[in-house]
Each structure stands twice: as C-alpha cells, then as structure tokens.
Design a protein that fits this description.
heterodimer; A: alpha/beta; four-stranded antiparallel sheet; B: abc type-2 transporter like fold; 2 domains
C-alpha cells in the first residue's frame, strides 16, 4: 500500500559539523492521520521537520513527501504542504485580511478565490470583527488559530505544525485541536510536534524522538499497553529515560 | 500566470508606508540634504579670528588692516603692539592668525625691499590654518598692489621699477568657487547610497529576526522574486529622492544640471544595482539587525572617506588611491559631479560606468552565491 503513505523517509540523517541532530530515522505517515512527533527539547524534531518541509537538505538518507523527493523536488513539496512554525510568523504590521491575502496570493490563488477564502476563514474562526486589526495586536491564541488557518489557505493535503499550542491557554488549545480534527475530517494529513502529552493522546500515532533517533512509534494506546502505564506522560518519561542509557552502552 | 510578485509588492509598499519612520525619512532626506547640508559641509573658511600686532601705527598699516577686514573672511579680534600678548590670545584659541607689522613698515614699503610683515597661523585645524594664511597673503598682496599703484605719489618713482605679475585665474564649471554647487551632486550620492544599500539590508535581516522569512521559505515563492519585490520600493524611493533633490537645488539655489538628466538617472540606476548587491551580501551574512548595522556602518564610513566627496582622491597616497578603485561611491560621485557641473556625456565618463558595472557584477554574483533558501 504505497499510495496511502504521504510521508516516507529512510535513514534520514542531518549532521551539523560533529553533531548529529537527526540520526538515521526511518518512518512513514499515512494519508489522513494525525501524526504526533514527540521528543524533548533538542531531540531533533524541528531539524527533521525542516527537512520534510524542504527548508533543509538531509546529510544522508532519502524520502518522499506527498510523492515528491525531499532532495530534488523541494519546490514541489512546498506547493503541496502547509507549515506553521514554532515562532509566530505572520506579518504583525499587516491586518488580518492582508495576511490572508498575501499568503493566498503567494500560493497562487486568484483574486476571487482569495476573497472567498478570506470570508470563509474569518467566519469559521469567528474573527469577522477583527478583519481590519493588525495581526500584531491580537492575543496569542487568536494569532495561532489564524496562523493555522493561513497555513491551510491553499488547502494542502499535508500540514506541518511545529509546537502550535506553545504558551496558549487550555481553552484555546482545545479549540485549536477542534480545528485540527475538522481539517482531518476534510482529508488533510496533520504532522504535529508538541510537548503536551494530553495532546499526544489525540494523535492517531506518535513517534518519540530521543537524541536524534526515533525511540518508539505506535498508536498512543498501544504504547501505553507496551510500557504498562496509564497515560502518555508516563510513556514519554519511560522512553526518554531509557534511550540515552542505551545509546551510551552502544557507544561504549 | 502567477500574480505572486503583485502580492509581494503590495505587502512591501504597505509595510513601507505603515512604518513609523521610513516615509518621513523619504521626505526628510532630500530636504535635509539640499537645504541644510550644503551650508553645513562647506569648506569655505569664514570668520577667521585675526589679531594684528601693529608696531608701525602708520597710515599704511591701518590701510592694510582695513583691506584685510573688508575682505569678509576675517574677524578682527584686537590690534595691539605686544607680540607676547597676541601669542597668548592664540594660545587661548581666541586668535586663528596673527599679522605682525614691523615699526618701519611704511618706510620699507616704499623702497621696494622685502615686505616687513609677519604671519603666524594657528594650525590646530589644518584646513582653516592653511586656507586662512592663503587669504591673508592674498589680502597683503592686494594691499601692496593698491598702495604702490594709487598710493603716495612721492614714492611712485621708486616702486614702478619693480615689475609685478598679476595672475587672475578663471574658474571653469564653478565660476565663483561656490562650495555648495560642488557639494549638491555629492550629497545626492550619499543619500542614494544610504537609501538603496542599507535600508533593504536591514529590512531583510528584520524578517530573519521575526521569523517571517522562514514562513516565506516554506512557500513556493522564488527567492529572487521575494528579494526583488523587497528592493523595488526602495528603488522607487531613491528615484523620488533624486528627483526631489534636483528640484530643490534648482528652486533654492538656481543650480541646474549641465548635462543630460538621463545620464544622472542612468548612473543612479547603476549605483543602485551595486548597492543592492552589497546590501544583500550584508543581509546574507548577518543574522540580526545589530550585526547588519555594524557592517553597514563600517562600509559607509570607508566608502565616504575615500570617495573623493570631501577630499580629492588625487591628493591621497598611492595605496589609498588603490582602495578607492574598489569604492562604488568614487565612480558614482565622479560621474554625478562631471555630469551635473560640466555637462559631461557618457563618452566622457564611460570609465565610471565601467567601474560601477564591474563592482555591481561582483556584488550581485556574490549575493546570489552566498544566498541559500535551504541549509
């Protein structure tokens, strides 16, 4: 079943000098699932994600994203993905509708389409009144929801979310996940990194990255059974604590 | 048909006009450059504080003093007969020049032997000192000429025997040696350099800092499109500033460009290309605004000091002249002055165009080679 895998990577490695940020990771993401990409700070999540988005070239390894090669077809990949970075990255001095218009235009939507998408988006976000506000003046939660919608402005089959709910209040986080579910309901595949283990429970499958390698990968329930613990938080602690020791042993 | 460039340009213009400082700067730049700086950067020396030690106290000596003060360059601080007192005034920085007239001034003036006056100049400020002493010498020469020609009739028989050569230079292209007209094209050069090289660099680095450039990098936008759309508004602003400067120079001072305006705009376009490349190089190598500012500041200082704007390149030592060959401002400034002041055409300043093209090719190539959308 090759066709229902939207991301496929084999032996993906990224080195910066002597430091190996991503160390031969192999995994795939199925079409239409929510794939949780977990790991401690510095585990190499963002680096791996940047390779998948075409922002960075792998040192070794190969793979495809939406059928395009991550080494040679980066520009085609970019056309077919949405990306929401960890750092808020809409233009703060542009108004809400202007940001939507800009990114719509960049992704090649026509004037009419942009108008229509803007109206749809503002309505579903409940932000019609804020249309003329500069994005910089919105509260963080609103900004993040807007950033997610804008990442999806061209209705890509796959969207990357890098810690989308960092620093956001619990209520907004819940609304954010509702948005993610809605997107998945419309057939989008979601690739998400997070530090919140309750969010990991919402994913169809999660991978846990430790020191540049994928320490484990499965559905949340399967992982909980495997380690005999009640929640993802304990799974994460167990896996994260186990792996470095193993690596040291392998090194010695 | 992709309209990406349209949306990107729209964004840049909105951001430009929404910026609290930039639009004001675009207006203030030409006004300041044309209305304030031509006076401020004038190398004309006026108000030289003069002390006269008059030991002669004769009719001739008072006439000499009057000749000096009426030239308009000197401000007479004091007339005394004690050289030590005059020296103290200079030590206290109250006098820039001391003119000493000996006791037998009037007598010796008549008999045609060496002129019994002395000049002492304070050269803490070298330019003021050397130019001041030059003015003083020419005043004395003028006085001697007047005195011996129309002066005391009794002495004419002796003085006519000494022949004098009167040299009066005619100044081409700037008849009255008006420093302002000399500085107007140079000030335009400075304004254009600042606007087109460094502001876009800071803008791009600013996007790096806020992280928005990363968002742009994951979109299918071509890097060249993105950068070009960033540069275009600044180019338009540069041409606006250039036009405003030329209009102000015409209205305020009555200076007009002696050459073709097309050439002025052509050289400006060439210079803009060079500066764009340099600005992009800087933005490629700096990850935050502070770094970009420092590099920018360094280049501006070096470029300005060895551009020939303030000091003639020909009088620099050989090694410094060699540095100026790498300085785009040197070529742009030379071309602007030649076109503006004497109406040079492209056939006369082709070497400036060539210099700009060569440096432009180097900076643009460098910028493209060092720029990476992926790491």
């Amino acid at each position: 079943m090759e066709c229902d895998k939207i991301i496929k990577v084999t032996g993906l490695t990224k080195r910066f000098g002597n430091f190996t940020a991503v160390d031969h990771i192999t995994f795939d993401v199925r079409k239409g699932e929510i794939f949780g990409f977990l790991g401690a700070n510095g585990a190499g999540k963002t680096t791996a994600m940047k390779i998948l988005c075409g922002l960075s070239l792998p040192t070794e390894g190969s793979g495809t994203v939406d059928g395009y090669d991550i080494r040679t077809q980066q520009e085609l990949i970019k056309r077919n993905i949405g990306y929401m970075s960890q750092k808020f990255s809409l233009y703060p001095d542009l108004k809400v509708w202007e940001n939507i218009r800009l990114f719509g235009g960049i992704y090649g939507l026509g004037f009419k389409e942009i108008k229509q998408r803007t109206a749809e988006m503002l309505q579903s976000l409940g932000m019609e009144d804020l249309r003329n506000e500069p994005v910089g003046s919105l509260p963080l939660g609103w900004k993040q929801k807007l950033a997610f919608s804008i990442a999806m402005v061209h209705k890509p089959p796959l969207v990357f979310l890098d810690e989308p709910t960092g620093g956001v209040d619990p209520e907004t986080r819940r609304m954010f996940w509702e948005m993610i579910y809605r997107a998945v309901g419309e057939g989008t595949t979601v690739f998400v990194t997070t530090h919140y283990m309750d969010e990991a429970e919402y994913c169809d499958r999660v991978s846990i990255m430790v020191d540049g390698v994928i320490a484990d990968l499965d559905a949340p329930d399967a992982l909980k059974d495997k380690y005999g613990v009640p929640d993802m938080d304990s799974v994460f602690r167990t896996v994260a604590a186990r792996r470095p020791a193993g690596k040291e042993a392998a090194g010695a | 048909m992709s309209w990406t460039w349209f949306f990107l340009l729209e964004k840049e213009f909105k951001q430009f006009f929404r910026d609290p400082g930039l639009p004001k700067m675009a207006i203030a730049f030409p006004v300041l450059m044309m209305l304030v700086f031509p006076f401020a950067v004038s190398m004309e020396i006026r108000n030289i504080n003069l002390v006269v030690v008059d030991c002669s106290r004769s009719e001739a000596s008072s006439l000499l003093i009057r000749t000096c003060t009426s030239s308009g360059y000197f401000h007479l601080v004091d007339v005394c007969d004690d050289p030590a007192y005059a020296q103290r005034l200079m030590d206290r920085n109250e006098a820039d020049a001391i003119l000493t007239v000996n006791a037998d001034f009037e007598k010796e003036l008549g008999n045609g032997s060496s002129l019994p006056v002395g000049i002492k100049v304070n050269t803490v400020n070298g330019t003021k000192g050397s130019i001041g002493s030059g003015y003083l010498t020419s005043c004395i020469r003028m006085f001697v000429a007047q005195y011996t020609a129309g002066g005391a009739g009794a002495q004419t028989s002796v003085s006519t025997s000494s022949p004098s050569i009167d040299v009066s230079p005619k100044y081409y292209y700037n008849t009255y040696l008006d420093y302002k007209v000399f500085m107007v094209p140079a000030l335009i050069v400075i304004a254009i350099t600042m606007l087109t090289g460094f502001f876009p660099a800071l803008n791009i680095v600013g996007e790096k800092e806020t992280g928005t450039i990363e968002q742009i990098n994951v979109t299918p936008v071509r890097r060249s499109t993105f950068i070009l759309c960033k540069l275009i508004p600044y180019w338009l602003v540069a041409f606006f500033v250039l036009t405003a400067c030329l209009i102000i120079a015409r209205l305020m001072f009555g200076y007009f460009c002696h050459g073709s305006l097309w050439n002025i705009y052509l050289f400006t376009a060439l210079h803009i290309t060079v500066m764009a490349g340099l600005g992009l190089l800087i933005s490629n190598f700096s990850s935050n605004a502070q770094q970009a500012m420092f590099i920018t500041w360094f280049f501006t200082m070096v470029f300005m000091l060895v551009s020939g704007i303030f000091t003639p390149i020909a009088s620099m030592p050989r090694w410094a002249q060699a540095i100026t060959w790498l300085n785009p401002m040197r070529y742009y400034n030379d071309a602007m002055r030649c076109i503006f002041l004497k109406g040079s055409t492209l056939t006369e300043v082709w070497y400036d165009a060539l210099g700009l093209l060569a440096i432009g090719a180097a900076t643009i190539t460098g910028a493209i080679l060092t720029y990476r959308k992926t790491s």
